[in-house]
């Protein structure tokens, strides 16, 4: 990014650069570079907030410069507590937490500002879908990590900029097509002076300024009146139960007494957020409910009235009161734990998923033997392996001679590895449907892959959605559950028996199916003194398997109750 593209966050004047600093031509204020290459527009040089302990992250950055990101991570990770490693693994490698990007207008020619980069996964996922991503954060080490990870992936469209505690954004007017505030708006008043709501409003006005006409802003944030707040489930960031429900003045007294600091992390209802957007000059558009929370979610539910929460994602009986409440848009609009909300500088453009459905509506209806009709998005589900599942339904099908609304699943790959897996899955489904030895009764239970393709670099595969109730949601006695599982295993055994084949283990198969997974386990969960044992295990696997004929069967990644569907 050219330094002439920056404006002074103190006065709004144009910023020019020297070899070692940046200077405003208007107020003459000087800024610096963080670690030589990251423009730094902060007042607090030592600010740090991250899920990664500072000392460990600095060690990772130092070693990464010498040995590369992957090797450095393999050395630093085993020194951290196990629970922290598990959490950081999710934060570092789960691009599914950026599934909300498919609610945006993805385009390889567009520019996005991502405020609050965290450990970099969200910005990296955005960089796969947009032409340019600017990561903006107060913590310099996180920006270093982002740029190191981007370089390791060969991405040259990510730029880090440090800032966030001065009045203005350091960017010109009409600079970005999209701005993302995921977990940012609530905490802005913590680093700025003044009335918290006025601080948030001023920042949203800045967001509007840097958005292009027709640009959009996505905000992920807590609901002030979440049903969890009424149950006294205090937010881990504040440790103040019921605080968001209190009048602001009362919450301030409560916070001063309990924590010795004022209450400044304001949240609002959906109605309150829309009012805030309008005051900032932004036009509220769509709202969604991520479950269980916007920071780490398994699904995103549309609040337009046609979405349904999948009971398996929070457990319990699909007919329970909790399930019925969670399936009520009226309830969620008031009491959802958090929201994803879209607002625009004018009317927001159609979402990527809407554009995809617009292109595929006719071909999909023909592939499924349905009359021409529009499809609707019911919900987004986040699957393992950096995949997103969009549940879609064609309600008109139920009114044209079909017994019920037709449903299908759009599988979307969030990175090249996920696309390889999804492409292989589509090939397997096609092979099974064409397998001559497969009994017809079993063939009917296998989803059919209808369409595969790519739109603006996003790869998708559309398959039939099979009806059924996830085993995890069924309330049954042990004996009844045992019979149900026995029936499921019988179907798997029938499938394996009909489709089994044999293959001689060569170097390629040994590496793909055995050695590569073992090395991943060793890198992230093995201590340094355990590495020789892993090396011996690698050698032993080679001795045992190379040149041997082994049976190969079709597999599913996770035989959990959540993934086994039973007839209602």
Structure characteristics:
alpha+beta; globular; two-stranded antiparallel sheet; Phosphorylase Kinase, domain 1; 17-stranded mixed β-sheet; 21 strands
Please write out the topology:
Blueprint: E1 15-17, E2 21-24, E3 30-34, E4 38-41, H1 54-67, H2 69-76, H3 82-93, E5 111-115, H4 121-127, E6 132-137, H5 140-152, E7 158-163, E8 176-182, H6 196-210, E9 211-222, H7 227-230, H8 248-259, H9 270-279, E10 283-292, E11 297-302, H10 321-326, H11 329-335, E12 338-344, H12 352-368, E13 376-383, E14 387-394, E15 406-413, H13 416-434, H14 440-443, E16 449-455, E17 458-464, E18 469-470, H15 478-499, E19 501-504, H16 507-525, H17 531-545, E20 549-552, E21 565-566
Parallel strand pairs: 4-7, 5-6, 5-8, 6-7, 8-9
Antiparallel strand pairs: 1-2, 2-3, 3-4, 9-12, 10-11, 10-12, 11-13, 13-14, 14-15, 15-17, 16-17, 18-21, 19-20
Helix pairs in contact: 1-2, 1-5, 16-17
Shape, principal axes of CA atoms = globular
Largest sheet: 17 strands, mixed
Number of strands: 21
**N-to-C CA distance:** 57 Å
CATH H-level superfamily of the domain at 352-467: Phosphorylase Kinase, domain 1
The CATH architecture assignment of the domain at 352-467 turns out to be 2-Layer Sandwich
Q: Number of helix segments?
A: 17
Low-confidence stretches: 305-316
Strand content: 15-25%
Helix content: 25-40%
CATH topology of the domain at 352-467: Phosphorylase Kinase, domain 1
Structural class: alpha+beta
Average residue pLDDT: 88
CATH class of the domain at 352-467: Alpha Beta
Indicate the radius of gyration in whole angstroms: 26 Å
């Amino acid at each position: 990014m050219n330094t002439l593209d920056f404006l002074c966050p103190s006065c709004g004047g144009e910023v020019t650069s020297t070899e070692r600093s940046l200077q405003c031509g208007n107020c003459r204020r000087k800024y610096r570079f963080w670690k030589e290459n990251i423009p730094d527009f902060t007042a607090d040089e030592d600010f740090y907030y991250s899920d990664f302990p500072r000392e460990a992250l600095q060690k990772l950055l130092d070693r990464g410069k010498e040995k590369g990101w992957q090797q450095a991570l393999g050395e630093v990770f085993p020194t951290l507590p196990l629970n922290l490693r598990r959490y950081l693994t999710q934060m570092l490698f789960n691009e599914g937490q950026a599934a909300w990007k498919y609610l945006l207008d993805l385009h390889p020619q567009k520019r996005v500002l991502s405020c609050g980069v965290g450990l970099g996964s969200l910005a990296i996922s955005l960089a796969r879908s947009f032409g340019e991503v600017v990561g903006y954060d107060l913590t310099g080490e996180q920006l270093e990590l982002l740029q190191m990870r981007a370089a390791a992936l060969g991405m040259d469209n990510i730029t880090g900029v440090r800032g966030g505690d001065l009045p203005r954004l350091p960017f010109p007017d009409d600079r970005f097509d999209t701005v993302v505030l995921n977990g940012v708006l609530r905490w802005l008043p913590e680093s700025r002076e003044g009335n918290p709501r006025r601080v948030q409003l001023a920042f949203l006005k800045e967001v509007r300024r840097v958005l292009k006409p027709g640009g959009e802003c996505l905000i992920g944030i807590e609901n002030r009146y979440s049903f969890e707040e009424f149950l006294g489930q205090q937010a881990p960031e504040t440790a103040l139960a019921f605080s968001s429900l209190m009048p602001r003045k009362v919450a301030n007294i409560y916070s001063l007494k309990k924590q010795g600091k004022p209450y400044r992390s304001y949240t609002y209802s959906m109605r309150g957020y829309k009012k805030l957007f309008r005051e900032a000059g932004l036009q509220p558009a769509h709202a969604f409910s991520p479950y269980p929370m916007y920071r780490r979610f398994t699904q995103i539910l549309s609040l337009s009235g046609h979405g349904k929460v999948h009971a398996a994602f929070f457990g319990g009986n699909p007919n329970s009161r909790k399930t019925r409440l969670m399936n009520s848009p009226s309830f969620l609009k008031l009491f959802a734990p958090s929201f994803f909300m879209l607002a625009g500088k004018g009317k927001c453009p159609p979402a990527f998923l809407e554009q995809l459905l617009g292109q595929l509506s006719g071909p999909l209806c023909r592939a499924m033997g349905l009359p021409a009709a529009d499809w609707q998005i019911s919900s987004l589900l986040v699957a393992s392996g950096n995949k997103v599942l969009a549940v879609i339904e064609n309600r008109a099908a139920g009114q044209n001679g079909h017994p019920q609304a037709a449903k299908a699943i759009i599988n979307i790959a969030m990175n090249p590895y996920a696309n390889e897996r999804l492409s292989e899955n589509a090939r397997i489904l096609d092979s099974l449907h064409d397998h001559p030895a497969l009994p017809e009764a079993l063939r009917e239970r296998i989803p059919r892959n209808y369409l595969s393709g790519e739109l603006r670099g996003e790869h998708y595969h559309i398959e039939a959605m099979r009806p059924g109730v996830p085993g995890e949601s069924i309330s049954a006695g042990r004996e009844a559950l045992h019979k149900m599982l026995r029936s499921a295993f019988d179907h798997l055994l029938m499938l394996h028996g009909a489709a089994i084949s044999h293959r001689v283990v060569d170097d390629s198969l040994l590496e793909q199916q055995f050695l590569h997974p073992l090395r991943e386990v060793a890198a992230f969960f093995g201590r340094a003194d355990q590495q020789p044992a892993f090396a011996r295990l690698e050698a032993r696997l080679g001795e045992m398997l190379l040149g041997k004929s082994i049976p190969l069967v079709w597999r599913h990644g996770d035989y959990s109750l959540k993934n086994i569907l039973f007839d209602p």
